[in-house]
Amino acid sequence: MSDTNAPTRARVGPLLRRAAQAEAATWRSLYVWARRRPLPLGPGDEPFGYLGVVKPILGIFIGLSVIEIPIFDVVVTHVVPWRPARWIVLGLGIWGLLWMIGLYASMTIHPHVVGDRGLRVRLSSGIDVFVPWTDVEALRKRYRSLPSSRSVQVEQEGDRRVVSISVGSQTSIDVLLRRPMTFDLPRGGSVPTNELRLYADDPDGLLHSARGTPTSNTVSR
Question: Which string of b and e fits 65-89 if b means at least 16 CB within 10 Å?
């Protein structure tokens, strides 16, 4: 007799594993960030952050969480007769606050890195791809607003496939590749890619630091 639930378990299992890995990575990032240690960079490496576009939003959510925790604590204490409810709600509130701080920390301690051998593109602790300079045809500064809020978006432009690693639904740098490359990404990583787009707070600085790679500026959205 066939197991009709097998396909569902096959899909749910990897999702749960990825969720557990992401959760653990967030708490590790919070721990590392709280210790205030310097970023682990190699000789000649230059970090470039990407937090600026979402920093105000994260700040608002963190601030609201700080305010909500005592308010909900008072409400639950006086309205819900079941005493453990207060500690459950309080625990969930503190967990949510620390999780958002952990997300901020993860994006802070995992910047893009320009090095002698190539460009390391990152997003929090979940995305980390390396593009050698020998595979980069050109870098372009170009701000784009994307239609979706997903961090990884794949588009087909004619016979070319473009992968965007966005922050706040935006990218600011186009990386044109000399040959199709495959990246280890949550979405779109198994298909050869002709162009990689990313967001950096200082695209001019990143382009200036590129090791002999042709660059250009296009600021249209």
Answer: beeebeeeeeebeeeeeeeeebeeb
113-171 pLDDT, tens digit per residue, is 999 999 999 999 889 999 999 999 999 999 999 988 899 999 998 889 999 999 999 99
Show Cβ contacts of residue 79 under 8 Å, excluding neighbours closer than 6 positions.
none
Q: Which among 118, 97, 86, 88 has a CA at the least distance from the CA of 210?
A: 118
State the Cα–Cα distance between residues 100 and 29, nearest whole angstrom. Answer: 11
Lowest mean pLDDT among 33-37, 55-59, 170-174: 33-37
pLDDT bracket for residue 11 (50, 70, 90) = low
Is the pLDDT score of 193 beyond 90? yes
Q: What are the backbone angles phi and psi of residue 40, rounded to the nearest 5°? A: -75, 95
- Compute the distance between CA of residue 147 and CA of residue 166 in angstroms, rounded to an integer: 11
> Minimal CA–CA distance to 174: which of 123, 121, 212?
121
Beta strands in 29-188 (DSSP E): 46-48, 112-114, 118-123, 127-132, 136-145, 152-157, 160-165, 170-181
Its sign, for the CA torsion 31, 33, 37, 43, is positive
